[in-house]
Amino acid sequence: MYMFKYICKRIGLMIMTFTIIFVTCFVLIKLLPVDYSVGFGEDTAKIENMLKSRGYDKPIPEQFILYMRRIFLDGDFGIGFRMPEYRGQPVWSVFIEKLPPTILINIYSSLLAVPVGIALGIFAALKKNKWQDHLISTAVMVVISVPSFVYATLLLYIVCFKMSALPLNIASFADVIKAYPEKNLVYIPGTFNWSLYFNSKMFLSMLPAVFSMAFGSIAGYARFTRAELTEVLTSEFMLLARTKGLTKSQATVRHALRNSMVPIFPSIIGEFISVLSGSLVIENIFSIPGVGGLYLAAINAKDYDFFMMLSGFYLLVSLVASLVIDLSYGVIDPRIRMGAK
């Protein structure tokens, strides 16, 4: 009962937070002056008619009501106006097309970072105050202190440019289709074909971005795991387990690792949920045609509908990840009762 009330409370707070931030973003972006006559040439009159038909000339409160009505009743998130390459295209179709690269590079980086980071953290904790621990801890602090785009730049220059070990940019759909003529792959704009992404050529071209994103996560998991496991290994119940006749390895595996993973697993779950949010900077550096690059382009171009849709997407993903992390504590450890007094 306590858990049910807690979930309802958290969902209510999440909806309220989302609404406040979403409305604030809508009002602020609408207050920005945008000159739609620039760069449209002869299409200026056509664009103005389209804007009027969608209520862009009305007061901001009325615009918001019309915008939400189109979303809930028609599933219409708007169309592009300011970015030439997406002008007149439905926002939702472009978003669906850009989503797979963002998901894949984040999933690949998580699958690499989680086992490697936890393994390094466990090894450092078991070798506490030895040279292995000092080496791993120093490397972790160096990696955490340096932003991910620095590693991305170095990796791009050394591994991709100088050594030519990996591609400089992500493979295009045309390159993939040409590399696998026997699969009869077809690219249709506005949709996605997973066969265009799940192949060796596309995977290799994503590796530089995956490694750049994984470095920071590996260091974070290693530091967190070492701290938690070190604390558990010095707990009194570990001494009791040893006095009962368990060997050091048995006590570590059966008790220490199990208890230290309680605060670690929720962060892993949140990591997998939040992979949808992507990495704006990394995508831009490696020219990945994902959601991150689209979001930055929408901000620079002041494209209302693209900005609102992508802002809502990133906001919703962040709030859902936070909710899942909190709820997972009670699932992982039955001793924790969320919402109980």
Q: How many runs of DSSP E, i.e. beta strands?
A: 0
Structural class: mainly alpha
Give average pLDDT, whole number: 80
Shape, please? globular
The H-and-E topology, N to C, reads as HHHHHHHHHHHHHH
The CATH topology is MetI-like fold
Integer count of domains = 1
Strand content: under 5%
Helix content: over 70%
Which superfamily, in CATH terms, is the homologous superfamily?
MetI-like
Indicate the CATH class. Answer: Mainly Alpha
Rg calculated over all Cα atoms: 25 Å
Biggest beta sheet attributes: none
Detail the topology: elements first, then pairings.
Elements: H1 2-31, H2 44-53, H3 60-74, H4 91-126, H5 131-145, H6 148-162, H7 173-179, H8 200-233, H9 236-243, H10 248-260, H11 264-273, H12 280-285, H13 291-301, H14 304-332
Describe the structure concisely for a colleague.
Helices cover 70% and strands 0% of the residues. By secondary structure, the protein is mainly alpha-helical.
Description:
- The protein has 14 helices and no strands.
- It has helices at 2-31, 44-53, 60-74, 91-126, 131-145, 148-162, 173-179, 200-233, 236-243, 248-260, 264-273, 280-285, 291-301, 304-332.
- Helix 4 (91-126) packs antiparallel against helix 5.
- The radius of gyration is 25 Å and the shape is globular.
